[in-house]
Specification:
The chain has helices at about 1-5, 10-15, 115-120, 125-130, and strands at about 25-30, 30-35, 40-45, 50-55, 60-70, 70-75, 85, 95-100, 105-110, 140-155, 170-175, 185-190, 195, 200-205, 210-215, 220-225, 230-240, 250-260. It is mainly beta. The strands form three sheets. Strands 2, 5, 6, 8, 9, 10, 14, 15, 17 and 18 form a ten-stranded mixed β-sheet that branches. Strands 1, 3, 4 and 7 form a four-stranded antiparallel β-sheet that branches. Strands 11, 12, 13 and 16 form a four-stranded antiparallel β-sheet that branches. It starts with a helix and ends with a strand.
């Protein structure tokens, strides 16, 4: 525990999950970076763009990568770094930052928690199926894994595009939000590389005010969102499913997020 204390991290924070903090996202200091500037980004956990920062701690993630021009490389930082990502000489063009956490476990002890959590993510049908089956809402566990992405444009736009990176649950921008005259962005939601049709995504926009809306993917897993002239956008979606009967945990969930801004 000494290295955690040295970084100012508590186990309670590391285990923060759906019960107290919803979204987990990558928030660059700047989404558009000059070619001679540093590219830096925080890992954040919370709600409505408010929350705590999460430092660079390799034991907490399965992968932390930067993809540029179709090539993906592991990001290697220093334990305890905050911002978690700090690149002195980033590659010009679109940089795709991706973070795949290791699973963490949540125990349901509050009878109101499951309902609050599932409704907040637009997963009422999961709650209805849970109750229709007569399943308990306390005394069960959930393993949750974070799949966060962010898009950073270094230098002038030169045609780079987002791409699927093979994360279990993943949001993929079609093209780039930094292409000229872009006021609407199309995304696709993928589960195990396949489109997720008719599925909810929470959309957060941070400008002068913070707004939240919910959109639903179409039959091919696509959805269009309006990209404001200034501000930050975050899309968040949760995939949750029962594990085989009698196994622990009771549920397994994957949380996908995507951020970009200007």
């Amino acid at each position: 525990m000494s290295w955690l204390k040295a970084c100012g991290i508590s186990m309670a924070f590391l285990m923060a999950g759906p019960s107290g903090a919803h979204e987990y996202w990558i928030e660059p200091l700047d989404f558009t970076v000059a070619t001679n500037a540093r590219m830096m980004a925080f890992l954040k956990v919370g709600s409505d763009f408010k929350g705590s920062t999460f430092p660079y701690i390799p034991p907490q993630f399965q992968s932390f990568t930067i993809t540029h021009d179709g090539k993906t490389a592991d990001y290697i930082g220093q334990v305890g770094d905050s911002p978690a990502l700090q690149v002195t000489e980033p590659e010009a063009g679109l940089n795709i930052l991706a973070y795949h956490s290791k699973p963490n476990r949540l125990s349901y002890r509050d009878p109101a928690l499951l309902e609050k959590y599932l409704k907040a993510e637009g997963l009422d049908r999961v709650l209805e199926a849970h109750r229709a089956a007569g399943l308990p809402e306390v005394g069960i566990t959930e393993d949750y894994t974070r799949n966060a992405k962010a898009l950073v444009q270094v230098g002038d736009y030169s045609g780079g595009v987002d791409q699927a990176l093979g994360l279990p649950f993943e949001l993929v921008v079609q093209g780039s939000p930094y292409a000229p005259d872009t006021d609407q962005v199309r995304l696709q939601l993928l589960w195990q590389g396949k489109p997720m049709p008719d599925y909810p995504i929470n959309v957060f926009t941070k400008g002068r005010e913070i707004t939240q809306t919910r959109v639903q993917t179409d039959a091919e897993g696509f959805v269009d969102v309006t990209f404001p002239d200034t501000g930050i956008m975050m899309m968040n979606s949760v995939h949750i499913a029962r594990t085989p009967e009698g196994e622990t945990p009771f549920y397994e969930s994957f949380w996908a997020s995507m951020t970009f801004g200007r």
